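Example 3.2
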Amino acid sequence: MRGVAGHMRGAGLAPARAQRRFLEALRLLAVGGAALAFLVVTASSRAESAYVANQGSNSVSQYTIEPLVETLTPKTPAEVGAGTFTDGIAVSPNDMSVYAANSSTNNISQYTVEPVTGKLTPKTPATVSTGVAPRGIVVSPDGKSLYVVNQSSDSVSQYTIEPVTERLTPKTPATIGTGSDPVRLGVTPNGKSLYVSNNSSSTVSQYTIEPVTETLTPKTPATVVTGGGPDDITVTPDGRSAYVGNSDPDVSQYTIEPVTETLTPKTPATVASGTGPSGVAVSPDGKSAYVANEGSSAVSQYTIEPVTETLTPKTPATVASGTGPRGIAVSTSGESLYVTDLDSNGVSQYTIQPVTETLTPKTPASVPAGSQPIDIAVTPEPQGPTGPAGATGPTGPTGASGVTGATGASGATGATGAAGETGATGAAGATGAIGSTGATGATGATGAQGATGATGPTGATGQTGATGATGAQGATGASGPTGVTGETGATGATGATGAQGVTGATGPAGATGASGSEGAKGASGEKGATGATGERGATGEKGATGAGGAAGASGATGAAGATGAAGAAGATGATGASGAKGATGEKGATGERGTGLTGATGAAGAGGDVPTFLDTGIVLPGECLGNARFGFLFDFNNMGACPAPVPAFGYSSDARLLEGPVPNGGGTVTNLVATTNKAPAAGRQAVVDVIDNTTGATLEKCTILAGQTHCTDSSSTPVAAGHYLEVRIDPTTTALPAAWRVTFRY
């Protein structure tokens, strides 16, 4: 809620600015004198309080708004605990209770406001259940009902506020449908109508609040169009207009029709704003509007034109804030404005100048808050008892005479006189002009539908998707057996042996003559002819052996005398040279190719299992997503702190956040796809990691940029057998927390 209760009080219940400052001055100057002290106790209003919802620290910050200067001072303690991912906050009109919506735990924290200090104490029970991912929250002007939007279940939960304890009890029905991704809501000051901004469908749902039960009934039409990505919505104190901040970026402005209270776009339908407008607030006097621009870290300021209530930028059009401003509220005095800065963990505070109602930073310009402050509500603290009535003053002087009254109405007309005699018939008048052509007759019935035209040609085939990563190459199969070698060609025939030499004659008897010299070596036989080329494949025949060499010549006859011994036989002539080698036969035909042995199985390729990690709640940066195959009976809100590492092949009982163990043989993680329900604002991004839980290594990563809702990573990374996998929203993410759906292969 963005100060709706403040708008109601500012419209008629808060003291005028001059009276408030006079009374505060009297209180501070009361240093003595019973009469003066009595006046301060009975007439002054107490200091206000402010409460801030902190998403990151799951808490509510509480402050005192100091009198006169209206700067914020933290109470003690500075924060009180809430549920997880506290997103919206509201105060009851009687200032006795505070309610905070917790998006991740799907409930509302309810607190009692201490009467004197304004500090918060949890009620019993401390929480009540809502739909999925509650965000914006508002209390009806009469303090009897509370409404909260559920972003992930597209509904509004509605509750009765019990009269004494102010605890919440669900109405019947407990919820009613909205558009897609409802985020914030506003209520008219008369308590008759409620409006819900739907971020994804870019509409506002509009409802009638039934007079007795205060349950919601959709109006006709049920929705009206906004700019793109509407966020906060607020209603003017007079109930005549409504304004919505859109991420386009601009502000939609509507007239609230007097009887039906349905919304009608003004002219123009939108006005420009800073980047990423979120929180919207209107001053209690209805003369100014202020918009927190998350993307440009500034506050836009507008004058509300007196008759049309259209917005006109002031000069200057914007003032600087902290980083990532989101929630916004005006003090009930109309003298100050406060803005929660989501990324710098503080609250910026401004003085609203008396005449121009432009913003000037206070000193200090900001005060610390919890982590990621997102919404703020302000309220006066409970009033003390009313003092005794003062003495009646003296009678005033007699007033001047009133002006003369208006002239009385004319008297009734007298009776009609008797009718005179009928006059003579007049001459025939000229023929009248031809009458205009009669209206065209109704269009004839539509002819029967013609035959269906021939089917158009088939559209071009879409581009082929990227090829999945190739699995590791299997080992090379064994070589097949070598084909049979062709037969060697036939060897050429050996040349003929040379003729044997003639034996020498026997010498005469007597002394033995000297041994005859060795006969000359017989001439080599002629070289044998080359054998014919063998037939294809057959071995050539062996060539014939060459002829022996000729016999050596006879030794000379010894000198006469004793008959010499018989001369030794001449040496055998040398063997003739071998015939030349026959030519090699042609190569035999190649034998049939043998089939090698099957190669070893390659490593497991990508594309085995496709796990899905899904959370429809709100996931914080650094948290892990829940594994959808377990889902806990389809309650897909299992996000949380990432689990401790599990050793390889170790056992884990975690059924929410882990995938694994990876099957034997290992795998390859690839084809990461991540989607979210909320595109990051300008200058922001969301990063998704697939983590090897066993080693802590990042296997896949992709980034969703501003204005987008998905990202992919087609690279491939191996993962060992027995390891576990998890999906984490990277801690470097700067986008607002959102719901996620992530898949990959391994």
